Amino acid sequence: MKEHAQKSAEFIRDESRTDWHDEALWFVRSKRDRAAHSIAEWEQLRELASQVKDNVLAHLDQYLEQFEANAQRNGVHVHWAADAAEHNRIVHSILEKHNVQRLVKSKSMLTEECHLNEYLTERGVEVVDTDLGERIIQLKEEPPSHIVMPAIHLKKEEVGELFHQKLHTEKGASDPQYLTEAARQHLRQKFLAAGAAITGVNFAVAETGGVVVCTNEGNADMGVHLAPVQIHCMGIEKIIPRAEHLGIFTRLLARSATGQPITIYTSHYHRPKVNGEMHIVIVDNGRTTQLGRADFRNSLKCIRCGACMNTCPIYRRSGGHSYGYTIPGPIGSILTPGIDLKKYSGLPFASTLCGSCSDVCPVKINIHEQLYRWRQVIVREGHLPPAKRQGMKWAGKVLSNPGWYNSLGKLTRWALRQLPRPFLYNSFNEWGRDRELPQPPRQSFKEWYQNKKTEK
Amino acid sequence: MKVGLFIPCYIDQFYPQVGISTLELLEKLGCEVEYPTGQACCGQPMANTGCEEDAVAAYHHFVELFQTYEYIVAPSGSCVYHVRKHYDIIGQTEEVRKVRKNTLDLSEFLLDILKIKSLDSRFPHKVGLHQSCHGLRGLRLGTGSERVLESSSKLDTLLRMVDGLELVELTRADECCGFGGTFAINEPAISAKMGKDRIADHESKGVEVITAGDMSCLMHLEGILRRQNKGMKVKHIAEILNGTQL
Q1: Cα–Cα 20 to 30 A to B161, which of A157, A158, A430, B201?
Q2: Considering only CB atoms, which chain A residues are within 8 Å of B53?
Q3: Which helix H or strand E contains B107, and what residues bound it?
Q4: What is the pLDDT of residue A1?
Q5: What's the gap in Å between the CA of B68 and the closest CA on chain A?
């Protein structure tokens, strides 16, 4: 994986596009602010949501079993998958049993995480993503760049060109309404032909055994209602104890995600339809390992609203693809090290630790504190480049020893004053690429203070 | 009241006038201030890079140096936040707990301890306030724009005590400037871009001077301003409160 620093530098090279991307996401963040501020008890809601999730994570085993029992009582087939491979096998076996060749899927970050599309396509199943943004990037053969707005990195002109090639819309057409209508007509055929529908799950209610899916396009409903087989894929952390808790989360979710009071559709699936079959696949894929890490357990509270991405000044200026994982941005940077510490060791450093992510998070995940903690783990496990590691060892020695610190400070100031510019500003000086170094004073504060004391 | 003055390393070396202003201001307000000259660094650069263990010696040194003071005051939300928040990995002796509890940012000390209501200072300029993240979201020196709470800001309150100062409202009230310690050199492109964007916000509002409670943010912004030959200046809030002129 290319380091985030390198990918973000490439992204920024087109500065006006970076500004456009930044503004598009800042617009969503601002909309979120207005929506949040319309609710006086917003902070209490966040606290409540966080506490409900604390309770869920503390009793996850019991809630999962309760959920399974209630779902089975409703006539739902419940499957357990330890990892992505098992999840994909289970889904494929259900499709095989029903001889399904065409599948529609509404948005599910879990199936992205498990790379289900590739798995099924290789086995001859046509998988069609029905969320408009997801369909766009599927046609473009790209991963999502955002968990709520998967195609946010594309301009409408680019979507127009893509649709012209793939859906034969008029060349040069970029009117959103026209393009959306073309996608609707195209997807309508796919919905009608599908033998099965897959959805993600926003919330799974232990008390009822039902799952809840939030969409703006109604595509989850359309898929589930038309296809004889419905499959809902969920991570183990999607559980909430009771139906009465749903209101807390639905009020927070859409406001945090897009600034809407609620998603257009909040669909509740409890039992199979007449002559239909309903499956729920419950996936671990590393989540229990994360649950066992006291410092990082809270990351499992995430309700995938994407607010931390919209607010992150780095995400907005580097794009989702710069993170190299299905879930980008701040939340991705605390989830990925738990999946592959070495591979993603750069991500917890792709942050200024500004803390905006933690304050915007509707379930109060201490994201920036976890970024800080992951940095410590990454260094302890030996994944910081050796030169940086050595540099920090020296810094630690100098900066805790007043004698060395004073001398080195003086020497640095002298060098900054005396050395010709090319010695200071060159390819070794990352600071100096776009910035001037500070103008060093002759006297440090300490020297001034000591002089003043002796004068007295 | 005996106050230990804590001057962060980069202020000591590069911005002595910020230390001087802080000292003079505190003395003007009647405090007995001592600057322990054995100071070096609070350890934040190492710890934020993930090398906490290399910062432990600095932590112990800091505690030893400051343990006798009733209050430890610094013109830096970020370094104060580090002492308060991250000195939790060393043994929590009585001294460590005392130092962590009593280390305050200048704005907290002025408003919460000295409870000042006015200042004898004049700064007749259009000023943009940059809210440093560690001060704002770490020490909660104000209400971040993310939170749905009654809005307040210690730095804002203090600047409003300065005669003639016109505080402008920014389009993005509290977005990070992109400094981020070693982030500034690990991700130089995005760090600089964030800084440029902050400057553009201040510039569009006609700001003459950008101020902040943290000189590190201002060091980064000043570096960009000077590279771009812009006339806008940076001044630490301690300088403005102490009556320093442009």
Answers
A1: B201
A2: 396
A3: helix B106-108
A4: 43
A5: 19
